[in-house]
Specification:
CATH architecture of the largest domain: 3-Layer(aba) Sandwich
Number of helices: 12
Number of domains: 2
Radius of gyration: 20 Å
CATH class of the largest domain: Alpha Beta
Number of strands: 9
Strand order of the largest sheet: 7-6-5-8-9
Largest sheet: 5 strands, parallel
CATH superfamily of the largest domain: Aspartate/ornithine carbamoyltransferase
Length: 331
């Protein structure tokens, strides 16, 4: 007898699949894919920690060669709630510490007949490279300064739920902070433009990468100009571990000029939402009182949506309805 909760999810999925076998960039995700992902993610979110049997018999490994709290735990819990077997591999406890390459590590893991390998790396391009050499589906959980596509998906879901509709046409998103070193920005700006949002960025000149205007956004060095009338304010952390501290006089000075305070957030629209990908550096990126107390903060909603989105991706990628299989293209 079919579980009624599972039956409801199957009906929402309606036989749909996504158009990609690996996910290393938001550029791979079509508008049709977004509709599928978000429809299912909302349903998963409503059932919270319910244990589904959809991916029973499938295995996933988190291969995280860089520190993580939210992304690793949400992928691990999502997989377990789909009845998958999981394992976590990190650089400190893996053979990469002994000189093994990322490729050899991935091919070794793939020999265990995994369905999904989730990869995080300090180096840009690693997930995309590995996807060409393994049968498992590779999901990019953040690669260097490049992209973090699942973060962008959960962010877009959070914004769409607030604004309503399937696009962000007529909505303005102000992104404030370390644009230069942020892989979150790399995926976020792509999905916002895909959804037709108006995007503004505000940061010190040293945090603005050359050619960023090519994304079709406006650059502001005075944060108040970017925040005025915005529907969404998205703060980014100063990425000191990637050398960002050398691009500003001090964190205290940065906070004075670009930290999101109540006074600054009040410059945006009355129904503005405040977002941050985490980890939040309180009183530097965002003033402490705004993080989890202010009703405009959607930071914890982002975390909740992360579980729903990652659960959706694992179901769609490890359990395709069309029966198609990934074909490796080594090059």
């Amino acid at each position: 007898m079919t579980d009624p909760t599972e039956k409801a999810l199957i009906e929402i999925r309606a036989g749909r699949d996504v158009g990609f076998f690996d996910l290393h960039s938001i550029d791979q995700v079509s508008l049709s894919d977004l509709d599928t992902i978000f429809d299912i993610a909302r349903a998963f979110r409503a059932h919270q920690t319910y244990k589904f049997s959809f991916n029973k018999g499938c295995s996933m490994v988190n291969a995280f060669f860089e520190a993580s709290t939210r992304t690793m735990s949400s992928f691990d819990l999502s997989a377990k709630q789909l009845s998958m077997d999981t394992s976590n591999v990190g650089s400190a406890a893996s053979s990469t510490k002994k000189g093994e390459s990322f490729l050899d590590t991935a091919e070794t893991l793939d020999a265990y007949n995994l369905k999904v390998i989730v990869v995080r790396s300090k180096e840009s391009g690693v997930p995309e490279m590995l996807s060409r050499h393994v049968n498992a589906s590779i999901i990019n959980a953040g690669d260097g300064w490049h992209e973090h596509p699942t973060q962008a998906l959960l962010d877009a879901l959070t914004i769409l739920d607030h604004c309503g509709g399937k696009t962000l046409k007529g909505k303005t998103v102000a992104i404030v902070g370390d644009i230069m070193h942020s892989r979150v920005f790399g995926s976020l700006v792509r999905i916002l433009k895909k959804l037709n949002a108006t995007v503004r960025v505000a940061a010190p000149e040293t945090f603005i990468p050359s050619g960023v205007e090519n994304f079709g956004l406006t650059v502001h060095h005075k944060v108040e100009d970017a925040l005025s009338g915005a529907d969404v304010v998205y703060a980014l952390r100063v990425q000191e571990e990637r050398g960002a501290g050398g691009f500003i006089p001090s964190l205290r000075e940065y906070s004075k000029m670009y930290g999101i305070s109540k006074k600054r957030l009040d410059m945006a629209k009355k129904d503005v939402i405040l977002m941050h990908p985490g980890p939040v550096r309180r009183d530097i990126d965002v003033h402490s009182a705004l993080v989890s107390v202010d009703e405009r903060s959607h930071i914890l909603k982002q975390v909740e949506n992360g579980m729903a989105v990652r659960k959706t991706l694992l179901w769609l990628m490890a359990n395709r309805m069309d029966g198609k299989k990934k074909v490796m293209v080594r090059k």
